[in-house]
Amino acid sequence: MQQKFRIERMDREHLELALDWAAAEGWNPGLHDAACFFSTDAEGFFMGFLGDEPVGSISAVSYPDDFGFIGLYIVRPEHRGKGFGLKLWHTAVDHLGERTIGLDGVIERQSSYARSGFVTAHRNVRFEWTGPAVTETDPAVQRLDPADFGELLAYDAALFPGMRDDFLRVWMGQPSGVGLTYRSDDGGIAGYGLLRPCRVGYKLGPWFADTARIAEDLLKAFRHHAGAAPIFIDVPEPNTAALRLATVHGMRRVFETARMYTPRAPALPLERTFGITTYELG
After folding, report:
1. Topology of domain 127-275, per CATH?
2. Does the reported pTM lie above 0.90?
3. pLDDT per residue over 97-139, tens digit each?
4. Where are the transmembrane segments (predicted)?
């Protein structure tokens, strides 16, 4: 008897499984990504089953301000080419409805996403950085004070397509994460980022800054916290200052993705985005 394919919302256990699949694909998830993702929109994660066997996943996370993001789009290798991925895809797109939707797709799949109305905005480049430990950091770089969270949200709002208060509260406070801000001469936030532990080393994301100098000061401070462990950063290619920093600090290109949107790309100041937050949630 042929087994039936069905799609259900994930629970936390299945989200952990999907992140294991992502690790097997080389995406190197954070150690606490499941808790952060699930707390953002528990209704936005879907698992495909063949009988009782999980065979595919996709996330379709909703943010306020009519924005959503698709990620974790995986079909297990032995079950590809059977139409399961397309069914998962339609579930995610239908779930997000009329929102502006973003995704980070494999470069070779851009034409497939374009058939669903997605347009390429730019590429994101993953870099691996294994530079030496840093002993001195700029005093303007400080650990994030929870009392300053409202100010952080206001800063972030100009750099992301939707308000993400709930996500950032969990993201910036995750276990073993290091959240840093840069304070300008007038005392305001002029940059911030989060370093989080991953299956391999750390990831830095977001990495936002008003100038390249501020971005580099933050970068050095994050290297201080990571020691000699590798740091992975996903840099938007239009930010040429970020690419220069990657070159100056001897970072190695790992792979690239295509950042795509439908119906159109939001207007964002990418010159202040030195590293995106995550491929899964934008």
Report:
1. Aminopeptidase (3.40.630)
2. yes
3. 999 999 999 999 999 999 999 999 999 999 999 988 787 789 9
4. none
